[in-house]
Amino acid sequence: MKVLKFPLTKITICFIIGILTAYFWQPSLLLINSALATVLLTFTVSYFLSRKKKQFINLFTINTYVISFLIGSLTLLFHTESLQKTNYTNCKKAFEKPQNITLCLREKLKGNDYNDRYIALISKIDNQHYSGRIIINIQKDSLPNSLIIGNIIQLKTTLQNNSSPKNPNQFDYSKYLNDKQIYAQVYAAKSEISINKRIRKDIWYYTAKLHTRIVNNLTQNHFNPNEMNVALALILGQRQEISPDIVQDYQFSGATHILSVSGLHVGFIMLFIAFILKPIGNTPKGSFIKLITILTSLIIFAIISGLSPCVLRSVVMFSFLAIGNHLRRNGNTYHTLLVSILLILLFEPYFLLDIGFQLSYLALFFILWLQPILKSLWNPKNKITANIWNVLTVSFAAQIGTLPLCLYYFHQFPGLFFVTNIIIIPILSFIMVVGIIVMILAIFNIAPQFLVKILEKSIYLLNKVIHFVASFDSFVIRDISFNTYYLFAFYLWITFTIVWIKKPNYLKLTAVLSSVIILQLSFLLTKKEVQSQQEIIVYNIKKKTSISERNGKNVTLFYNNDPLKKISKNNVLNSYLIGNFSLLKKETKIRNTLYFNNKKIFIIDSSGIYLENVQPDILLLIQSPKINLNRLLKSIHPKIVIADASNSYSIQKYWKMTCVKQKIPFHSISEKGFYKLSN
């Protein structure tokens, strides 16, 4: 594999490993700086020695890779805002009691039924300068929302840490926000905030103003709201207002990627600009004019779209591809790709943990690497057939490259992605061209009615096609269990297989067969781990009681009064089953006593009935039983008391105080999340 022979490839890989090491290990800055200073010294010595004696070249090479690794670690630590002294996470009192906080609205997020949500930048806490990104939730009321990006607001509130998942194997929203350097949230009503007359007029303010101007102009032209929200997602990356039904259709049809501005959209823009500039000759001067025009267009598009991370990385990626094309270095496209990765991660190392970043670069890499092989399998003479074949091979290459990662993150596979891509790419190409023209004209309030209607009808057609494809529900394979072992084993097998196909030999075939063995080992290891596990989970489901007992891959569900079908389709339980490679084998009503690993779990429900001589290890209280807990604890002496989310909040407060007095641990599931008892 030639790309691995590039020195830049090895440097980039070491840099990425350095980022990941710092992320999971979290070493001190002093340690990394000391190591870097030492390695820089040996690097300098080895450089001069290697110029005189060739045997020192290997030492120089090793030092280069170690420096790249350490710079990767240092880059991540420098960009971890919680390590900075001025970050609000170091203001402990702000998390304990209400403080006067001054912040500036930076970005509007998708709201919910109760709150408008924004990302804001903290500037002061009780007149002391602090910094950092935070989410502010502002309660909705009957008054129109007068807040805009750039507003400086003041409020007295307590910072709340991002809450961890309250049920097993659920999406960790807290970790997701932490990776975006957002460590807390605040909640407030409009009456509780004071808006400063001064507005921070930075680039975020002006891009938000552009968006508002575009939306207002399109609304005046009677653009249907559903189609307009999709248009804003396709062209500007603004997904906040898209209805859940439309998002679900795009997911099931395998077209979710087009709702997020990514490499596909930026690639369309670059190809469109290149097509317009085609009459300009390929002379050095003409090529330079094309390059400047493409780069300028991409920068303008990034600004109009709000400088979102997904747009920025796509613009940087394609800017480097444009520069590589200008320099006539088409053979070194991999170099261009690696440089863009290195540059992006140097300025934003946390992008490496972003799913969009991973999928974008994997898709592009496999298109460059695998698509030429697939395309060479058949050379149709008919132009239309050739174009369809080209779309198919590009789609298949991208899908092969991203499939393991998609299964790992989303646990489903849209079987009709081929059909979707063949149909939507021509429509999407037209929408992107017309949409960009409409958006630019809308900025100046001169978007003609007929052009707006053309865009609206095109998106209506796209939504109908997507809905039709998504209606074939049986082609969407859901609930696929996929872990880290599978992820690495599948990528190893895919990589070695492609390397062998490109240029077969005995050594490469050995590598393919070895990767198959590793793949099988990953299956066996997973199966062994699953079979050796036993555990009981008490779930956090509001006003409901749900307990599961797992023995290997078989799960028994205990419920209170809910219908079996309703419980079995619960998303909480489903996430648990998928995450643990398990099957729901039995559903039964909750008994008063459960046994697990020689431990007795005694359950008291709303009836409040119990036996005084039970003597359990664990006492589980459900459905707000009317009991004298103080007397009960003295009678049965449990080692821990658990209250699930079916109990009222007020009664749990009383139980907690009672347990503190009796010096017995108390676990409130609605507060702390699910309770797990394992072997």
Q: Brief overview, please?
A:
With 679 residues, the chain is an alpha+beta fold. Helices cover 53% and strands 16% of the residues.
Mind explaining what this structure looks like?
This protein is an alpha+beta fold and 679 residues long. The protein has 22 helices and 20 strands. The strands form four sheets. Strands 1, 2, 3, 4, 5, 6, 7 and 8 form an eight-stranded mixed sheet that branches. A five-stranded mixed sheet has the order 14-13-12-11-20. Strands 15-16-17-18-19 form a five-stranded mixed sheet. Helix 1 packs across helix 3 (57-78), helix 5 packs across helix 14 (417-443) and helix 9 (284-304) packs antiparallel against helix 10 (309-326). The chain is globular, with a radius of gyration of 29 Å.
Low-confidence stretches: none
Helical residue percent band: 40-55%
Radius of gyration over all CA atoms, rounded:
29 Å
Strand content: 15-25%
Mean pLDDT: 87
Shape: globular
Largest sheet: 8 strands, mixed
Q: How far do the termini sit from each other?
A: 46 Å
The beta-strand count equals: 20
Number of alpha- plus pi-helical segments: 22
| Secondary-structure class | alpha+beta
